[in-house]
Structure formats: C-alpha cells, structure tokens
Amino acid sequence: MEDGGRARTAMVGWACMTLCLFSYAAAFSQGASLSACSDMMPRHLRVQLHSSHSNYITVHTNMSFYFPGDKVPVTVRSTRDYMGFMLQARKVSNNEIAGTFIFLPPGSKLLTCFEDGDTVTHSDKSLKRNLSFVWKAPDQPIGDIKFFISIVQSYFVYWAKIESAVVAQGGHN
Predict the structure, then answer these.
(1) What is the structure's pLDDT at 39?
(2) Residue 98 falls within a domain, yes or no?
(3) pLDDT score recorded for residue 69
C-alpha cells in the first residue's frame, strides 16, 4: 500500500512538472515576453547564453546612412535554423529603442516595448533561417543607430544582442 502511494505521488509530481514546463514553453512559442524589452534576454528556464559574436548569424542593411522618415531594409541571415528571435533598432548615443518596423516576414509579429511596433519577435516556433524586415526611422532626428537581434536556437541555447554595423544618420554632425 505504501509503494502504491509513493508511485501515485511520484506520478502526480511528474505530471505537474511536465504540465508546468509545457505551459511555460508554450508561453514563449508565440514570441518574446515584454520583460525582455530592455536587455533582449530570453526568460526561459536554464537557458545557456552563447557569445554575441556568433559566427553564423548576421544582421545587416544595405544602407550605411539614413535620413529621418526613411525606410531601411534589414536582413537577418543564419547558416543554422533557429526558433525564436527579438529584433530592435537602438540609438548609438544612449541605447534607446527607436523607430518602428513596417514590414515583417511570415512567422513574426510586432511587439510594443516603448512605442507601437518598435520591436519584432517570432509569432510561432517554426524553424527560421533568413528573414527580411523594413524599419522606418522616426520623422525627427535621432542620430546613428544599430540593429540588434537575440536568437533562440532551441529552448536551452540562445545568442543575445548580435549587432549590425552602425547606420549613420545623414545630414547631421
């Protein structure tokens, strides 16, 4: 009788743990949490951070400068599949998130960290590799910017804040 009780307790504990982990994982399968807005770090259990100097993920644009109100194409390329991501443009001067994304690929959605559409994240956990976006600069001058992306390869492995080259604001000193 005691063995049956222990087995039942173990089974209930296992079921609860599995259900809790599943619901926690499912919560992030539809995009990054707002709690990741400022540091771009995934909030998964026991994740393993890898160096932001990834040798297989790049984020870049074909523009070396922009003017206020410009639309800037942004491309993320990877030689490996990944499930999740968070993409932002930030001012070089103070690291604040800037601008809005106006074109997103399938499997992604807008997230409002500080202003509507200032961040893009995944909308499902389908495997991704090469993605294209369009970012719209604010109408007022904000200075030079960089694009940053955090990539979640699997539930336990991620790279945070991989950065693009500086995109200079044209027409300012």
Answers:
(1) 60
(2) yes
(3) 97
Neighbour-count burial for 39-56, b at 16+ CB within 10 Å, e otherwise? ebbbebeebeeeebebee
Tokens at residue 129, please?
């590799």
Residue 40 is which amino acid? M
Its domain, for residue 125, covers 34-169
Amino acid 29: pLDDT? 53
| 15 domain residue, yes or no | no
> How many whole angstroms separate alpha carbon 100 and alpha carbon 107?
18
- CATH number, domain of 150, equals 2.60.40.4060
Q: Is residue 24 part of a domain?
A: no
Domain count, the chain: 1
**Domain annotation covers residue 18:** no
Name the 3-class secondary structure at 139: coil
Tell whether the model's pLDDT for residue 14 goes beyond 90. no
Q: What is the pTM of this model?
A: 0.76
Cβ atoms 108, 120 nearer than 8 A:
yes
Query: How do beta strands 48-50 and 157-163 pair?
Result: parallel
